[in-house]
Design brief:
Elements: H1 2-13, E1 16-23, H2 30-40, H3 56-62, E2 72-78, E3 91-97, H4 102-105, E4 117-123, H5 130-141, E5 161-166, H6 176-181, H7 185-192, E6 196-200, H8 209-222, E7 230-231
Parallel strand pairs: 1-3, 1-4, 4-5, 5-6
Antiparallel strand pairs: 1-7, 2-3
Bound molecules: guanosine-5'-diphosphate (GDP) and magnesium ion.
């Protein structure tokens, strides 16, 4: 009884925390995405208001973002926008940017058992590496670490994947329809039949970020019976 009461107490007083991996090839925009989130959302241990009203794109552009060495993490307090029908205001999202260079990609799977969701960023202008990007996504979604004790019939990913077709602000960016019918066609339809989605964004210009996070949070909450959040 005490145990039940104390776990209920924990549930009502603590915030739910979901771990989200930010993956993708190097130069896709992973660190830029993370830096932009830091400007848009408050961190859980600060009462500082995020800079919602300012032009965050110009702040990001003035920063020098170096290629990521090692891992880079950020935790934000998620708040749904005022015009949203969602009302999730007790959620922290912890993002892990693990670096996308080829040598670092085999490290990713170590994090699969403890993550609740994945954001896979695609550089929509990097047509030369679409094939490599596709293969990386296939390997990731069929990694053996996804198989779990109660679901070992295949190794298909069991957390939501948000694929972001990034750099849509650039004129040479491949649009969503072309992306879906190109190299990615089979994978995207296979994944979209499960719990994944491909959305157009510009993480530099803050286009589509709010919609993306809203989709992700909805799916993370929906997937709770599979992967329970941490309570912080
Ligand atoms: N035009 C444009 N450039 C972007 C966007 N996102 C990232 N970049 C640029 O792409 C380069 C790589 O970004 P970075 O965040 O370091 O990629 P990472 O290697 O995936 O972490 C940088 O020069 C960014 O300014 C975007 O949405 N639009
Ligand atoms: Mg980086």
């Amino acid at each position: 009884m005490f145990h039940l009461a104390s776990s209920l107490y924990t549930q009502y007083t603590k915030r739910e925390q979901y771990n989200v991996l930010i993956l993708g090839l190097d130069n896709a925009g992973k660190t830029t995405f993370l830096e932009h989130l830091k400007l848009l959302y408050a961190s859980p241990d600060s009462s500082k208001k995020p800079k919602r009203s300012k032009d965050t794109a110009s702040i990001i552009k003035s920063k020098r973002i170096l290629p990521t060495v090692g891992q880079n993490t950020t935790t934000i307090k998620y708040e749904s926008s005022s015009d949203s029908h969602l009302n999730y205001n007790n959620i922290n999202l912890k993002f892990w940017d693990l670096g996308g260079q080829k040598s670092l990609r085999n490290m990713w799977s170590r994090y699969f058992t403890s993550c609740h969701g994945i954001i896979f960023i695609i550089d929509s202008t990097d047509t030369e590496r679409f094939q490599e990007c596709y293969e990386t996504l296939v390997n990731l979604t069929h990694d053996e670490n996804w198989g779990s004790a109660n679901n070992d019939y295949d190794n298909m990913v069991n957390v939501p994947i948000l694929m972001m077709a990034n750099k849509q602000d650039l004129p040479q960016a491949i649009d969503l329809v072309t992306l879906k019918t190109g190299v990615f066609i089979q994978l995207v339809s296979e994944l979209e039949a499960t719990d994944s989605k491909l959305l157009p964004v510009s993480v530099l210009e803050n286009q589509g970020l709010q919609e993306s996070l809203e989709w992700l949070v909805t799916r993370l909450v929906y997937n709770k019976p599979n992967r329970a959040p941490e309570y912080k």
